[in-house]
Design the sequence.
């Protein structure tokens, strides 16, 4: 573990550019074994099925394979022992009229423009395709643009992946510019984990590029308070200073953040870096991820722990994405006990009952 400690001592700061950090990522079990004790043969079986990649910055946050950061990044044999769920439980492929574009809701589409990430999350809902070659090409992007241009009901485009911010600035600008040229597209939204996983990628030039295409929103992915560092705070400041409204989509994960205290701390810290908590996602029923799943009952308990104990600014919606392509629905703690013509009986965050005249 001495080598792991050595790597944790900000050694990623030796790199002059985010490209260099990314290119020196840990991509094989053999490379990971140089820094922490792992079973190479077992881990190779996992990595052959679901690619691994941990960049030096994100690796610097890990204090051990089984800690809350390590669980997210280090392959686990349970990923290939899991026979529950399916590769695509949300039926994205069935709802894709053209490759890598999902049209589930009437007025918006999800547009996958990259198949790479700065760190491959072991709980990824797109494990079936992220990190694999040829899943996203210039041709699929062009087909997606054509589909969006022809469908005038589409007013919002969610740009996703993989991670779209791993594209070069020019490529990002070209995609946003082409989408902005479609008159019926009103809102652009980018989904990314880069500010927390590789904050060095967030440069002033990138922010300048993004700023050209307002109204532009960005949902960022943070799962644990320890992911909020000086570097990630700086990255979020650069984006916020460019006028980009930042939200956070957190995934509720067993052994990572399934704890009221941890979740409260995360939500509060997000506000300090100018990121508004947006969603807490209940984990999807994706094959290879069952060891991350908690019960809905536990999730509701955590949401209830936020109400009354933190500002309303800190409280995201708790969402579940219905299998079969049914879409997202909110899950709410039960506060209303009864409703009649004359009154509403409700309990507050402390459990006390109160009557509100009907």
Sequence:
């Amino acid at each position: 573990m001495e080598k792991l400690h050595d790597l944790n001592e900000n050694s990623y700061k030796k790199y002059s550019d985010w490209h260099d950090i990314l290119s020196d990522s840990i991509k094989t079990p053999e490379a990971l074994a140089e820094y922490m004790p792992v079973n190479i043969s077992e881990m190779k079986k996992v990595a052959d099925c679901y690619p691994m990649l941990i960049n030096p910055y994100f690796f610097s946050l890990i204090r051990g394979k089984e800690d809350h950061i390590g669980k997210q990044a280090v392959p686990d044999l349970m990923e290939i022992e899991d026979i529950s769920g399916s590769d695509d439980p949300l039926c994205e492929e069935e709802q894709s009229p053209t490759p890598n574009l999902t049209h589930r809701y009437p007025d918006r589409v999800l547009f996958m423009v990259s198949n790479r990430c700065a760190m491959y999350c072991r709980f990824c809902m797109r494990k079936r395709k992220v990190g694999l070659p040829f899943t996203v090409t210039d041709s699929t992007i062009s087909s997606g643009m054509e589909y969006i241009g022809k469908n005038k009901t589409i007013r919002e485009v969610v740009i996703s992946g993989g991670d779209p911010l791993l594209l070069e600035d020019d490529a990002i600008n070209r995609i946003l510019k082409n989408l902005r040229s479609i008159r019926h597209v009103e809102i652009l939204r980018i989904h990314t984990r880069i500010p927390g996983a590789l904050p060095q990628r967030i440069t002033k030039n990138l922010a300048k590029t993004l700023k050209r295409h307002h109204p532009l929103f960005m949902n960022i992915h943070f799962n644990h308070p320890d992911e909020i560092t000086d570097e990630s705070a700086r990255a979020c400041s650069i984006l916020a200073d460019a006028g980009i409204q930042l939200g956070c989509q957190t995934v509720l994960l067993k052994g990572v953040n399934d704890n009221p205290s941890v979740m409260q701390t995360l939500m509060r810290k997000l506000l300090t870096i100018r990121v508004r908590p947006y969603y807490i996602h209940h984990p999807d029923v994706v094959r290879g991820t069952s060891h991350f799943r908690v019960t809905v009952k536990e999730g509701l308990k955590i949401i209830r722990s936020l109400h009354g104990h933190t500002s309303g600014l800190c409280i995201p919606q708790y969402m579940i994405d219905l299998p079969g392509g049914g879409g997202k629905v909110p899950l709410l703690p039960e506060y209303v006990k009864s409703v009649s013509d004359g009154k509403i009986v409700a309990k507050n965050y402390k459990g006390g009952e109160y009557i509100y005249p009907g």
In short: The chain has two domains: 2-81, 101-332. The radius of gyration is 21 Å. Residues 138 and 352 are 58 Å apart (CA to CA).
